[in-house]
Amino acid sequence: MTIELLPQKNGPQISKYIYGQFSEHLGNGIYGSLYVGKDSDIPNVNGMHTDVVDALKKIHVPVLRWPGGLFADTYHWMDGIGPKDNRKKIVNTNWGDVTENNHFGTHEYFELLKQLGADAYINANIGSGTVQEMAEWVEYMTMPGESPMANLRRQNGRENPWKVKFFGIGNESWGGGGNMRPEYYSDVYRQYQTFLPQYDKDHPIYKVACGPNEDDYNWTDTVMKYAGQYLDGISLHYYTLPKGTWGQSKGDATGFPESEWDSTMTRAKHMDELITKHATIMDRYDPDKRVNLIVDEWGTWFNVEKGTNPGFLHQQNTIRDAMVAAINLNIFQKHADRVYMANIAQMVNVLQAMILTKGDQMLKTPTYYVFDMYQKHMNAELVEGVGDVPENVTYTASRKNGELTISICNYDAHENQTVEFSGLADLKEVTSAKILTAGTLDAHNTFENPDNVVEADFKGAHLNDHQLQLALPSKSVVTVTLK
Ligand code: AHR
């Protein structure tokens, strides 16, 4: 089958923020993994786990959403500043009722961002926090001159303001963030955003409203109608559940039947329909596409690993997760005209993670390698294609700096596929070709065998007479760059 790429058609720019991450105060998502504290035996820089940060730096995390999630609507930021011994110990009521000592707070978050080279995406507490509390947090973080909160920041050791790029006002306000109706939430959003201080007039903080849960189109319609003019982005949450329901068993991360491979692929592809339909509603209120769709929670959600705290959402990550990542990233790129940011849940140890840790050990998951292989698409121009795509194959293509990058995923459990690309008249050579694949449906990395599923050089790419032929094994993700 041949796909003709249409490089002469100028596509939208693929925002680098589509490759965003999310870390919540949840289980081992931050404590003991990303953040180990300065006094830890685990090698660290200012408390941040060196190996973990080094691995994440290689995938150039563009933005990190924090502190939740559901945790955000119980988080009182003042608990997390000042000398660590004085910080309030609270109960994390959403995630296992464990003690939260608030040792990772605003200063630690910005230290982590600095080490990663990532931008900030803070989610405010509008569920149990006041307008004043939110406004003062932004003052604390971003006020350059004299003010009570800026002075408090200085007292705590930080002279200059930080940059807050994105700011979420509400998380799942239709559920755990307040059980609000969309009409009510729209008014709450309007109120809170009114008091969001914008000290840097040249670089205003980008405001993200709480958007729909999955296919709640009425939520999108209502929020766009009543609050659309006051927001820059509206979020969407959609998780890939093998069984498609939030019932008792979601399905296991490993050792699952082949039927759950298939249903997982089907559920992952559903993201395309959700974005298309929500974007169509947005088009009615915002035909110029000023407002973006922000998919700030996505990824697989399985049963927790046996013997782990059910509130910690700890799951293994297999070649199946890699397929889900590729399918979703291809969809986000296809919708680059609306989708400006996406944040996979979550970066370390929670749900569909990039990294798993155990003590001082860490491993990179198959999902990590997909993010690694897709890096060239960041801020590139989307290239559209026409032609038949084989069943169970999805691809995306983009151009940047005279290079064309194609990422393609054959998520068939058994069948290999050969795919050809034409429309490559100005391209002379394959400069890089990588593959991630595995022999079994649940192949994964363990601390004993951390390199079981890793990215490798791909030998199945052949450019002849301006036609690129790719021989794709089953269960594979391939990225090829040409120039
Ligand atoms: O990512 C885990 C949780 O899923 C988040 O806290 C919440 O927003 C969502 O329900």
From TrEMBL:
Keyword Hydrolase in annotation: yes
InterPro entries: Alpha-L-AF_C (IPR010720), ASD1_cat (IPR055235), GH (IPR017853), Glyco_hydro_b (IPR013780)
SUPFAM superfamilies reported in the protein's UniProt record: (Trans)glycosidases (SSF51445), Glycosyl hydrolase domain (SSF51011)
Domain Alpha-L-arabinofuranosidase C-terminal positions: 296-476
Entry annotated with the keyword Hydrolase: yes
SMART domains in alphabetical order: Alpha-L-AF_C
PANTHER family (alphabetical): ALPHA-L-ARABINOFURANOSIDASE C-RELATED, INTRACELLULAR EXO-ALPHA-L-ARABINOFURANOSIDASE 2
Full protein name: non-reducing end alpha-L-arabinofuranosidase
Species assigned in the record: Lentilactobacillus parakefiri
Gene coding for it: abfA_1
